[in-house]
Design goal:
Elements lengths: L2 H24 L17 H28 L3 H8 L4 H19 L2 H8 L1 H17 L6 H18 L2 H13 L5 H33 L4 H20 L23 H10 L1 H34 L8 H25 L5 H21 L3 H29 L5 H20 L6 H25 L1
Helix pairs in contact: 1-13, 2-8, 2-9, 2-10, 4-7, 4-16, 5-6, 5-16, 6-7, 6-8, 6-10, 9-13, 9-15, 11-12, 12-15, 12-16, 12-17, 13-15, 14-15, 14-17
GO cellular component, one term: plasma membrane
Function: Mediates high-affinity intracellular uptake of the rare oligo-element molybdenum.
Subcellular location: Cell membrane
């Protein structure tokens, strides 16, 4: 086996061992953590209801994320290699997507709260399918329109699905222990990592089979169609409510003036800290998505190798790393309850900062790749941790709206970075170093306010 095949086998084996260990030691963990306080026990009938709830939500959640993951390994190579676009044009396409996401984030959540999260999820399936279809064209205007649709879809995917789930959960299980919701988020991340691994392998397989890098995007449309059908059949509608029963955030009226929205963040320093963390960490993650393959290609070339990199396999390994992170997170929160979420978040942000700066200092393909794997481990910790924090801080009545608003500075940050994109190693090094510094800034903010 070559280097990447060996790493894939090692990560799969490590994840399998950790997952089995968690299953043997924790029973239903991470789906449900056992608690000593009898008043906080979920009754057996509620456990069955919880199981049905997960089966109603998780397969659809995994299908829509699978559609997204299928595109991950080949969106950059498709634009750059198959369509022959210059790096500045590719950056402009990515920037268009993030700009559309930033603009749509200011109103899609509010519309979802008003007209229904289920409807918004169905709209996501439609817009993302149209985005994939535009890649069949070489017309630059259609490609830019497709990226705009992709940006809107991303905003919907990262706000309305989770909003529907948390609100539905709070209605169905108002007295369930906090660890139950935390366990669901951990399960979502772990299973999502498995789907991402499979998506990377499938994406490479359909690309080799058809001879075109458009194939994964057409496969994604199938996933989106199945998800839409399942949502239509199995999900009920839920909305933002006037009165708030869950969450710690008190909001009188978010649908008015921007001043009210600004006050919302300023009045709750925890929400401000989560917004800063989301902007810098997820912004760095999207920058990483854009620059990871060029950085690996450079290291590969400096090693004197002329062979093509196995993008699908590399993507699968990175997703194995993310799964490892989610398993580690679940182990910590269920076995070491004395470690607070804020401590986990600060540690994770510090490690992520280091994973960006080391590849700038060391030009080695293996070290660069392992740093990227380490960053994905941090992503595996970040997503369930951040989802849990937002779930506890933000009120159900404005959940989709606030989730969307948190993504506005994130998308603006990515647009600003991508707007400066230039060919060459020097620019990429500057971007990685800046991401490292911003992650350390997030550490300081979290340390102060969380």
């Amino acid at each position: 086996m070559n280097f990447y095949q060996s790493n894939f086998a090692a990560f799969v084996l490590l994840n399998a061992v950790l997952a089995y260990r968690e299953y043997r030691q924790g029973g239903e963990v991470p789906l449900l953590e056992k608690e000593n306080n009898p008043r906080k026990q979920v009754e057996s009938n509620d456990k069955e209801a919880l199981k049905r709830f997960k089966w109603r939500f998780l397969p659809i959640y995994l299908l829509v994320n699978g559609a997204d993951w299928l595109q991950g390994p080949y969106i950059y190579p498709l634009y750059k290699d198959e369509k022959g676009l210059a790096e500045e044009v590719v950056a402009a396409l990515f920037m268009t997507g993030f700009l559309a996401a930033a603009i749509s984030a200011s109103f899609t959540g509010k519309l979802a709260d008003k007209y229904g999260r289920r409807l918004a999820c169905l709209c996501f399936c439609l817009t993302y399918s149209l985005s994939c279809l535009t890649l069949q064209s070489n017309d630059i205007i259609i490609l830019f329109a497709g990226r705009a649709l992709g940006g809107i879809s991303t905003t919907l995917m990262y706000s309305v699905f989770e909003s529907w789930m948390v609100t539905e959960y709070n209605v169905m299980f108002p007295d369930a222990p906090d660890s139950t919701l935390s366990g669901i988020f951990s399960t979502m991340t772990t299973l999502n990592s498995v789907v991402a691994i499979l998506a990377g392998v499938i994406a490479e397989w359909v690309t080799d089979l058809t001879g075109t890098e458009k194939a994964p995007f057409m496969t994604a449309i199938i996933c989106l169609f199945v998800a839409a059908a399942a949502i239509w059949k199995n999900w009920g509608e839920n909305y933002g409510e006037v009165s708030s029963n869950h969450g710690a955030l008190d909001v009188e009226n978010l649908a008015t003036p921007k001043k009210s929205t600004l006050r919302l963040f300023l009045d709750d320093k925890r929400l401000l800290a989560l917004g800063v963390t989301s902007c810098f960490f997820e912004g760095s993650m999207y920058i990483f998505i854009f620059f990871k393959f060029p950085a690996l290609k450079l290291s590969h070339k400096l090693a004197g190798l002329e062979s093509d990199l196995p993008f699908g396999l590399i993507f699968a390994i990175l997703m194995c790393s993310m799964m490892l992170g989610s398993l580690l997170y679940n182990y910590v929160v269920t076995r070491h309850s004395h470690i607070t979420p804020s401590q986990i978040l600060i540690t994770m942000l510090s490690v992520a900062s280091a994973s960006f700066v080391v590849p700038v200092l060391v030009r080695d393909e293996h070290i660069t790749f392992w740093c990227f794997c380490l960053f994905e481990v941090c992503c595996g910790v970040y997503f369930p941790l951040m989802a849990y924090q937002k779930g506890k801080v933000i009120d159900d009545s404005v959940r989709a709206n606030v989730y969307g608003l948190i993504r506005v500075p994130l998308n603006v940050f990515v647009v600003l970075v991508l707007s400066t994109t230039r060919e060459g190693t020097q620019h990429r090094d500057m971007v990685f170093t800046s991401c490292s510094a911003l992650l350390l800034t997030a550490v300081a903010v979290c340390n102060a306010y969380l």
